[in-house]
Specification:
The protein is mainly beta. 9% of the residues lie in helices and 38% in strands. β1 and β2 form a beta hairpin.
Amino acid sequence: MTRRAALALSVVAILGCSAGALTGADGLTATIADDARALSTDSAVYTARRVDAPWPGVEVYGFTAVTRYVNPASQPVYLWTCRPDDRSPIYSVVSAGGSTSSGVAYNTFWACVGHDRPIRVAPGEAHVDTLHLRGPNAFDGITHQPIDQTLEGRFQIMFTVQRCPSEAECPIPDDRLTHSNEFTVRVAR
């Protein structure tokens, strides 16, 4: 058995038996189980605890999530970073089953620079990150009240995943390759 064949069998074993093939217009193919995700979190339930109180009556909560991205594709994929030397990808926290982060308090504001050094994840390889999520992160400048206030509920983490290592438009649109499993966040008050 060739090394490539062994790697392909390993990826299929990781992703499960009930796998379907995804093929993009550019030839990128991935084998992934119908209920599997390339991006996963270390827990299905997190408890957010108070980490700060920037103004009277305003509290910020946080929790830590360890993510694992396993590339099921036939070629490398690239996790986009904010700066060239970052080792963690840009992420958003979205409502479960959605693609918008509107209202979710755990999103950070990214002030990024242009570059061509994303995180390369070869076929079958994994990239692990520890994300320290906290929120809310945006406040009204006059009232000091949070702008995005959703702290509890069902969420997913979304990475910016591309099929090319440049800032060209080459996103991977399938949410099984960009969105994590769903998880619940509860707030300890």
